[in-house]
């Protein structure tokens, strides 16, 4: 067996998956669909299995609506022939809510296209990401409140709320080395 041919096949499989995620990040579902076989199967942990290009692209289009966003940061990607393993962090944004969570995906490539896509993730991580994203969203809104009367800039607090108190023994910035 020619080792160069094996390496080329692995590189092509990785490129297919990498280009697929680039299209998803760009919210370009038609381009993402070009990397999928007509009989593609998409399996997500505990979610219904989606079968066929029209069904999968319909689901992807749902995430590409206004005020929605999908981002994937690939941490590790490896292949063995036509199988590609991807460890990544996905971020789903819906309006002001943003959830970031860890995902591991397995892709089976057939004739240069993705035939099977399996994603494994923890619902606990998705929930934790949603809670964290919600808290960040709320904190971000507090930082951009209108200026208090008589002040030239935002106070960063909720109007009418009691001021924060700091324990007397808590070190100030100038006391921390």
Topology, number of strands: 6
User: Number of DSSP helices?
Assistant: 4
Mean pLDDT score? 77
**Integer tally of domains:** 1
Evaluate the radius of gyration: 23 Å
Query: Which parts are unreliable, with pLDDT below 50 for 5 consecutive residues or more?
Result: 142-173
Pfam families: LEH
Domain Limonene-1,2-epoxide hydrolase: 13-127
InterPro entries: LEH (IPR013100), NTF2-like_dom_sf (IPR032710)
Region (Disordered): 144-177
Top keywords for this entry?
Nuclear Transport Factor 2, Chain: A, 177 residues, single chain, six-stranded mixed beta sheet, 33% helix, alpha+beta, 4 helices
Characterization of this structure:
With 177 residues, the protein is an alpha+beta fold. It has a single domain (3-137), classed as Nuclear Transport Factor 2, Chain: A. 33% of the residues lie in helices and 33% in strands. It has four helices and six strands; from the N terminus they run ααββαββββα. It has helices at residues 3-25, 29-33, 53-62, 123-143, and strands spanning 36-44, 50-51, 68-80, 83-94, 97-110, 113-121. The longest helix has 23 residues, at 3-25.
């Amino acid at each position: 067996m020619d080792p160069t041919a094996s390496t080329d096949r692995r590189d092509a499989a990785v490129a297919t998956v990498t280009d697929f995620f680039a299209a998803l990040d760009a919210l370009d579902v038609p381009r993402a669909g070009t990397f999928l076989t007509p009989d593609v199967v998409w399996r997500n942990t505990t979610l219904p299995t989606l079968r066929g290009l029209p069904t999968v692209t319909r689901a992807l289009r749902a995430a590409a609506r206004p005020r929605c966003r999908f981002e994937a940061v690939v941490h590790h990607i490896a292949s063995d022939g036509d199988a590609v393993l991807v460890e990544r962090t996905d971020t789903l944004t819906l309006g002001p809510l943003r959830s970031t969570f860890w995902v591991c995906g397995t892709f089976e490539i057939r004739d240069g296209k993705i035939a099977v896509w399996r994603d494994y993730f923890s619902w606990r991580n998705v929930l934790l990401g949603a809670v964290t994203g919600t808290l960040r969203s709320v904190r971000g809104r507090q930082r951009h409140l209108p200026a208090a009367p008589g002040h030239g800039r935002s106070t960063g607090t909720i109007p009418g709320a009691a001021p924060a108190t700091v324990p007397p023994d808590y070190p100030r910035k100038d006391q921390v080395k």
